[in-house]
Design goal:
Shape: elongated
Order of helices and strands: HHHHH
Low-confidence stretches: 1-15
Number of helices: 5
Length: about 140
Amino acid sequence: MSSRSAGAQRASQPVKGPGVRYLKLKLLALVVLCALPASGVVMQWLRGGRPVVLLVYLVMSLVTFGLYWRDKHQARREGQRTPEKLLHAAELLGGWPGALVAQQAFRHKTRKVSYQVVFWLIVAAHQLGWLYVFTQHAL
């Protein structure tokens, strides 16, 4: 193989090392996915409700981010792993934004298709829940 073709082959492969690939696109996706829940929280607050839902999302996102960090750390050390059911439960309870950030920051659970299917179903359930809240208030 010539040095020219070897260089071209290396250039087409993803760069290994720290950092998140396609960071701007992924941040945009996060903002878009969080727009509906954020709008719902603002709507509830403007109608005299308490922003407890926002607090739940923030706390659960931090907890979930921590669970992902611990699981990745344990995976590297071949230690006791965090059960996937626990990760999914934390996502379902509002920690999916933290999970999405952690997946990218730690490059963890991003290639396991069965895990990603459940994760994205949880995200979709949250989005549909907020769409339901909006349609009920629009009637």
